[in-house]
Amino acid sequence: MRLVPQSAGYARVCAAAPADNTNFRGGTDGGFMMSLADYAFACSCNSLGSPRVAIQFSMNFIAAPAPGELVAEARTLHHGKSLSLTEITVTDQKGKLVARATGTAMAPPAGAPSPRT
């Protein structure tokens, strides 16, 4: 996965699904698309200064992607004191929308251990 330069509250992540990462019909596995979207979600909401952890993630699969690279774009719509809400789209290399997701993240409680320790 490649994180394209991001701005506050926005992230764009690109990746090509490995050839062996397919579903039973031979298409791109949904789990791969979810991982791509989840990474964009984390980069977007954590770019706003206060660390957040996911508490909800939901994805709707809209269409089968064309073979090749996928792009996940995440925009954090709300970044409050304790909760953040982010929308994520996944498009294929032709620009076709293939999935849409939402993620909610929360600020860990005061005194909670850092996820990086």
Protein described:
With 117 residues, this protein is mostly beta strands. The chain has one domain (2-106): Hotdog Thioesterase (Thiol Ester Dehydrase, Chain A). It has one helix and six strands. Strands 1-2-4-5-6-3 form a six-stranded antiparallel sheet, with helices on one face. The longest helix has 16 residues, at 30-45. The radius of gyration is 15 Å and the shape is elongated. The two termini are 24 Å apart.
Q: Secondary-structure element sequence?
A: EEHEEEE
Average pLDDT score: 89
What are the segments in which pLDDT stays under 50 over at least 5 consecutive residues?
none
User: What's the number of extended β-strand segments?
Assistant: 6
Stated plainly, the CATH topology is called Thiol Ester Dehydrase, Chain A
Structural class: mainly beta
Distance N terminus to C terminus? 24 Å
* Number of individual domains: 1
Neighbour order of strands in the largest sheet: 1-2-4-5-6-3
**What's the CATH H-level homologous superfamily?**
Hotdog Thioesterase
CATH architectural grouping: Roll
Largest sheet: 6 strands, antiparallel
> How many distinct helices?
1
Report the C-alpha radius of gyration, rounded: 15 Å
Dominant shape? elongated
The level of helicity is 10-25%
